UniProtKB/TrEMBL annotation:
Residue ranges of domain F-box in the record: 1-43
Name under which the protein is recorded: F-box domain-containing protein
Pfam families, sorted: F-box-like
PROSITE patterns in alphabetical order: FBOX (PS50181)
Length: 361
């Protein structure tokens, strides 16, 4: 046990009773190998993480790079950083990321925009999924260095107009962006037609500085004309209602699953008449939709005055939803169609409710 990294002791010992501890003492090497693989596979810096814990982690990775770094598969940075310590931690992150040869998932929260430079000139060999809340400082060669990316989230963008350098990842199956102009530019550079790979698009419409109505309409036309593989679309944010109700928006006929925003911003939920108008817009924009996902705000769905039953009744009353079979709410609670324009609560939860990171960005 003495050779175990120090930060593992508290994580491991709390799960062991006296007999387990005895067994560990008899098979230390096997235990060490198993525990180390499991405990380093998924690393999260949450809001309660201490600076000491984070620095100790990176010191362990530095000291045992060949053994520890390749074990990390998922890294979530959801830590409220202190500006005086964020810089040194970002430096360690910059040095250690290329050593994480097994890292496939990386997410960085809005509080850590000071970490963005840690990705400058960095290549993470196996990266498949990347989610970055604030990306205006992101190195414009990052996408070109990660051709294996399949899922990409780029949240708030507040400056500059530098495009990403080619080539962009050609296998993207999921894209979430809140800059319509950048989303449109990126979509134009992805495979189209029979070669298209994109399955789901989450388009944030939250920026009061750059509403970008023309770019959003252009994205919908492009989806209809060039992305037959895209079956799921979620439009959310402060200006989502404007997009969904725009009479000039091109219907996307191959979309079978669509998001319905229930919050304008934060905890401000739409009134019943507003939500009814949004549903009419969704029915026109996605005429073959079969599943409706009602999207919560920053604090989930708890502040909405309408019950799930109330919302299901609104769906029942809207013309154009004849093909809808399932109405899904946060945490997978759902209503299923049991007859013409009649939905009843589903006995089991739906396990693929579309989580959207940082819905207010």
């Amino acid at each position: 046990m003495r050779s175990l990294p120090v930060e593992l002791y508290s994580e491991i010992v709390q799960y062991l009773d006296r007999s387990d501890l005895a067994a560990v003492s008899a098979s230390t090497r096997d235990f060490q190998a198993l525990a180390t693989r499991l405990l380093y596979r998924h690393i999260t810096f949450n809001k309660d993480s201490s600076v000491r814990q984070i620095i100790q982690l990176f010191m362990t990775i530095d000291n045992r790079t060949a053994y520890i770094a390749p074990l990390v598969q998922r890294l979530e940075l959801d830590w409220t950083a202190r500006s005086d310590r964020g810089g040194p931690i970002a430096s360690m992150l910059h040095a250690d990321l290329p050593r994480m040869s097994g890292l496939t998932y990386l997410a960085v929260s809005p509080a850590l925009d000071i970490f963005t430079w840690a990705f400058d000139d960095v290549t993470i060999p196996a990266l498949r999924e990347f989610h970055l809340a604030n990306w205006f400082k992101l190195d414009r060669g990052f996408l070109a260095r990660h051709p294996l990316l399949e899922r990409l989230s780029l949240g708030e963008y507040n400056g500059g107009h530098r495009p990403f350098r080619d080539p962009v990842p050609q296998g993207l199956e999921y894209l979430r962006m809140s800059s319509a102009a950048y989303a449109l530019a990126l979509l134009k550079r992805l495979p189209h037609g029979k070669d298209a790979k994109l399955q789901r698009l989450d388009l944030g419409a939250a920026s009061y500085r750059n509403p970008e109505p023309e770019e959003r309409l252009a994205i919908l036309r492009l989806l209809q004309d060039s992305f037959p593989t895209t079956s799921q679309v979620n439009i959310f944010g402060m200006y989502a209602m404007d997009v969904l109700k725009d009479p000039h928006a091109t219907p996307v006929k191959h979309v079978t699953r669509a998001g319905v925003p229930c919050y304008q911003h934060g905890v401000r939920s739409y009134r019943e008449d507003e939500l009814r108008g949004i549903l009419v817009g969704v029915a026109r924009l996605f005429p073959n939709v079969r599943t409706l996902d009602f999207l919560g705000g920053e604090n989930g769905f708890g502040h909405n005055p309408l019950s799930y039953r109330d919302i299901a009744r609104l769906v029942e009353a809207v013309d154009g939803f004849g093909a809808v079979e399932l109405v899904v709410f946060p945490r997978g609670e759902a209503f299923s169609r049991i007859g013409p324009n009649v939905f009843e609560p589903r006995p089991s939860r739906v396990d693929d409710y579309p989580q959207i990171l940082w819905p207010d960005l």
